Amino acid sequence: MLFDFFPSRQLTWYLAKTFAVRIIAVLGMLVLVLMMLDLLGETGDILAAPGNGEPELLRYASLRLPQLIARFLPYSVLLATIITLAAMNANSEVVAMKAAGLSAHQILAPLLLTALIVSVGSFAFNERVVTRSTMTLKAWQAVDYGPITREPDARTNVYFNDGNDVLMASVMSGQGANSVLTGVSYYERDDAGMIARQIRADRATFANPGWALEGARVFSVASATEKDLPDGTVVAPGVTLAQTELRRIDPDSEPLPQLSSSIDALKSAGRRTAELEAKWWHKISGPLSAVLMPLLGAVAGFGLARSGQLLARAVLGMALGFAYFVVDNAALAMASFGGYPPLLAAWAPFFLFLFVGETVLVRTEE
């Protein structure tokens, strides 16, 4: 029986159902509160754009909601674990299960199975929903919540070097020769690196070579004068289509296959990709962190409830869970600076706390 992790179908279903309901309840509460706080901070900026009103507020909420769900789902699993096991401990349900011969691992097995299902669902949700909503929201924020392109390949805040000059755009859409830059700024610099002229334009299209501007105005630093430029004025002849393919990559807005292609393109151009590779691996290890939460929070469900240590055990479980998120974020930051290899940065916190949680459980309950 000790090696049968699901000795009772009824008990497995009861524990899994109770745990799943608590996850949904905690996640709903967290997302609702955080969505309200987020709207309080962004409503003024959204309504400041001409023509925006209540529909735009609802649109912002619909785009922000998937991000909040993805970010706080592991926290919800942790809190649901502590709430579920602490309540069962206080009601002597854990004592009854252990008296029936179940080990701590057998009690946790339905919770771990539920968490694994949540992890798989979270991964699919991130790949299919969160990446798209993140891309759209960032493009909308780049134009201060005004009208934006709805092309799926749009990128925000891109910049390219043309020798000593710099071409920047708030939004880049299209592919190849059909690429379009919106919210364009072009800085011409002298040999000393100082800005000699600044050109701003509504949009630019590829002119082979260079980029043809529309609605452009130029400011000359030496004379401190500004004037209009005719449509079709070409700038940045050194910015080629090959260079635009290496535009700034946002790993949060790209699913795994697309991010893999972006990393390969950067590697072939000799660019550094350690940070992006760490994010690639974290797209897998991040959702899988939900499986750790029942193990880290399990300490709250054992021990005698009447011993007065239930609160201390719950706090310990929360501390272990939140420590994982701190270490996980620190490892990703170290990878961005080149301190950790990408694979180690993404997976070391997961396995470290897997061993910590298992050690605490074995030493205290088994």
From TrEMBL:
TM ranges: 20-40, 68-87, 107-125, 310-327, 339-357
GO cellular component, one term: ATP-binding cassette (ABC) transporter complex
Domain of life the protein comes from: Bacteria
First-listed, main subcellular location of the protein, grouped into a coarse class: membrane
Subcellular location: Cell membrane
Annotated GO biological process: lipopolysaccharide transport; transmembrane transport
Species of the source: Aurantiacibacter xanthus
Topology versus the membrane: Multi-pass membrane protein
Alphabetical keyword list: Cell membrane, Membrane, Transmembrane, Transmembrane helix
Protein name (database record): LPS export ABC transporter permease LptG
Gene: lptG
InterPro entries: LptG (IPR030923), LptG/LptF_permease (IPR005495)
UniProt KW Cell membrane keyword: yes
